């Protein structure tokens, strides 16, 4: 059975749906492998402009699969090279929107944090509960979370394993938007449609610079921004976008 389903809710949009409902979408190696394969393929597909990642209406993902880890040793964990699979998601050049309903716990919260935009349902639940099963976050839960919400809120989450709901996640900077539970997926697809209609070269440069700049000095990050900004003036879409504005018509972006 496919553990990650592929849907096409609109032009230029791919929706990836985690599909292990019996295990609350827990992330086993098969799910991670399928995610890595899809993110790599769609990341290179010029017809794909934006990717929506969801677990469905009830739960996003309840973490790494505990059954698949319970008896593992340190070397087993090392030899799984799981970070390579996460890296395939992190390095996807296309914008990724996580549509989060229900549990985004442990590796599920870390998966959501690999996205560029998080749309959360009001009763979504974000949590890093690893400490309760004797481990700690291993796919960005101590690092991406801290960069998103700051040390003190991150520490509280990872040291206590307490969940936060969608509204709290928004307030603390762990979500981009919170909407009614029933509207999460539709809203994420609507945002994806907006992004898919924009010039892909500019979108790709924005994503790359924003992420690379987060961990660079301000001076270096501003230089990266400046260079990418200048580079976009070599694109036809820049000419088209500005000409269309001046001629008061809709731009036709081609990704060149
Ligand atoms: N792993 C494996 N199975 C799971 C998981 C999980 N994380 N979560 C749920 N399931 C399974 C249950 O075992 C159960 O299976 P079964 O029906 O066969 O008994 C089924 O899903 C339904 O679960 P519940 O009955 O518990 O469902 P509830 O709706 O009552 O509760 C919860 C949902 C609250 C999400 C609950 O299932 C839970 O607490 N799950 C575990 C959450 C957790 O601790 N997650 C963190 C795991 S550790 C982690 O994520 C480390 C990430 C490191 C990434 C780097 C990897 C190298």
Task: Walk me through this protein's architecture.
- The protein has two domains: 4-196, 2-enoyl-CoA Hydratase, Chain A, domain 1, CATH 3.90.226; 200-246, Lyase 2-enoyl-coa Hydratase, Chain  A, domain 2, CATH 1.10.12.
- A six-stranded mixed β-sheet has the order 1-2-3-4-6-9, sandwiched between helices. The chain has a three-stranded mixed β-sheet with strand order 5-7-8.
- Helix 1 (29-44) runs parallel beside helix 3 (82-90) and helix 9 runs antiparallel to helix 10.
- Strand 2, helix 1 (29-44) and strand 3 (50-54) form a beta-alpha-beta unit.
- The chain has 256 residues and is of the alpha/beta class.
- It is globular, with a radius of gyration of 19 Å.
- Helices cover 45% and strands 15% of the residues.
- It has helices spanning 29-44, 74-79, 82-90, 107-113, 144-149, 151-160, 166-172, 184-196, 200-214, 218-231, 236-246, and strands spanning 4-10, 13-18, 50-54, 96-100, 103-105, 117-121, 125-127, 164-165, 177-179.
- Bound molecules: octanoyl-coenzyme A.
- The site of octanoyl-coenzyme A (CO8) has 20 residues, from strand 5.
- Octanoyl-coenzyme A is lined by residues 23-24, 26, 62-67, 82, 103, 105-107, 129-130, 133, 137-139.
